[in-house]
Amino acid sequence: MRKYARCISTTVRGRSVLLLLFSCGFLFALQTTLAQVNTEVYRIRPVEQGVTNNLSLNFSFYSGNTDFFKIGGNYRGDFLDGDIYSFLILNYQYGEESKEIFVRNGFSHLRGVYTIAPAVRAELFTQLGFDDFILQRNRFLVGGGGRFTIGELKDSTLNFSLYIGVGGMYEREDEGDDTLNVVTELPRSTNYLSMALNVHEKFGLKIVTYYQPAVTRFHDFRILLDAGIGFEILSGLSVTTSVDWRYDSDPFPGVESYDLSLSNGLTLTF
Fold it and tell me: What is the tens place of the pLDDT at every residue in 196-250?
């Protein structure tokens, strides 16, 4: 049987279209763990007032000595009205290799932001997700907090920002397999540090760290570290590298306490 591979990524935007070209090996390596979701990557404040929508679909297939199939989709809706900003994210990923499911997860996230002062914002959010890979049947969150600007610099050559977030949330998590099921309900503190740097639009660095301890038992905590770097090698062509590390101090029995992924790719902008 002849081998063939196909990778398709389609994005529909209201104002612009960006085509991302990645190697198929990079796509095969993407196995997202959704116990924690880095919502900073979705924090893209629209320029225009009103509602904007974004829909992305992806598909990859490989046949021959190894059968591989992966599909996914992401919807984003934004609303901006003066000092009030909100966004909704819907995401789903499914993949099989040799007829064995290796990824099936999804989540929805709704967040509302109100600007109190230029450097102070209040936020409310809710989230629902699941991830078969870590035996997470469903995870529900609802909470709120504050986002504070620590430093911000923008000019023709340099763009730098540093933010911290402090808040609290209620979490209900249902984990299990065919032999054991555990339901946990508890309050958590949710805190993050977000830093972004862009130089001459040719070099970019972004680091986001989350720390989420349980309020009633501080030995139960979760850490998320997302870091990405990109630099332009030719006009319109950039190399990107990202690292994703997630740690759970109290995982479900039989599930590793951490996940680590390293991704490399190319981005073509035209």
Answer: 999 987 899 999 999 999 998 889 999 999 999 998 888 878 898 999 999 999 8
Tell me the one-letter amino acid at 121. Answer: R
Q: Could you tell me the pTM of the whole model? A: 0.73
Beta-strand relationship, 181-199 and 258-268: unpaired
pLDDT band at 29 (very low <50, low <70, confident <90, very high): very low
pLDDT (tens digit per residue) in 117-161: 999 999 999 999 998 888 888 999 999 999 999 999 988 889 999
Residue 49, classified by CB atoms within 10 Å of its CB into exposed (0-12), middle (13-18) or buried (19+), is exposed
Is 105 within 8 Å of 133 (Cβ atoms)? Answer: yes
Task: Report which of residues 157 and 23 the model is more confident about.
Answer: 157
* 4-268 under CATH 3.30.565, yes or no: no
Start-to-end CA distance of the chain, whole Å, equals 37
Show me where the domains of the chain are located.
Answer: 4-268
Nearest to 225 by CA among 27, 34, 38: 38
The Cβ of residue 183 has, within 10 Å, a number of other Cβ atoms equal to 11
